[in-house]
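thought: fold this chain, then report.
action: predict
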Amino acid sequence: MAEGATMTRLVLALGLVFLWAPVALLAGFAFSDARQPFLWGGFSLRWFQALARNERLLEAAFLSLSVAAGAATLAVLAGGVLGWVLARQGRFAGRPLFGALAAAPLVLPEVVTGLSLLLLFVVLEQFTGWPQGRGVATVLLAHASLGAAYVGVLVQARLAALGRVLEDAAADLGASPLAIFRTVTLPLILPSLAGGWGLAFLLSLDDVVLASFTGGPGATTLPVLLFSQLRMGPTPEANALAFILLAVAVPLGGLFCWWRGGK
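observation:
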């Protein structure tokens, strides 16, 4: 038993090293004085100063954060309703098809999803005049549609695990359906909604494929910009920006895990 536990810890440690070693290297090279992004040239903060003057990179980063926040919020609203319907409305006509369509973004390749959304936006523009070309709004809706599927799964699983005991008890005490949802159901699924928001935010912030299909000249997100720069090689400013994002994301992730552990 002791040998098995030691082997398990060793495998977990190796897995963590494999996952975090590239991140640590990226963070380290952000402080390199060399122009080449993967060559150490001594400690320096010059690339953080260069980043502050790189308006294109900063604009793309701000756009990505804005789109990710908006898409995550829409995903929580749509996915929360989706998960609640699947978990609490029982069997209704077309439920298997509804559930399969709701979970489709989880299993479809992003290339297929991106192309489908592009065709949808083109058809909508032809028949309704909206959207007028592809831009920030289309990218936001595309990311929200993907995030809603993940949020729906989290909320459905949470409600299925909790059962209906507390909700039925509140109904027996005379609470209205709205009061039951506000005082019982919503607090119970709040951790899942928060986790779904964070997951949808990260999915949007990391996405290249959907943004490439549904974006336009005025909606270049940070991942798309960095991917386009790979043809000329990554820049040290990108390493500096990545370090700043890590410095913000890691403490926030730890804080959420600590909050989630108390629920």
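thought: worth noting. The first helix runs from residue 2 to 29.
final: tokens above.
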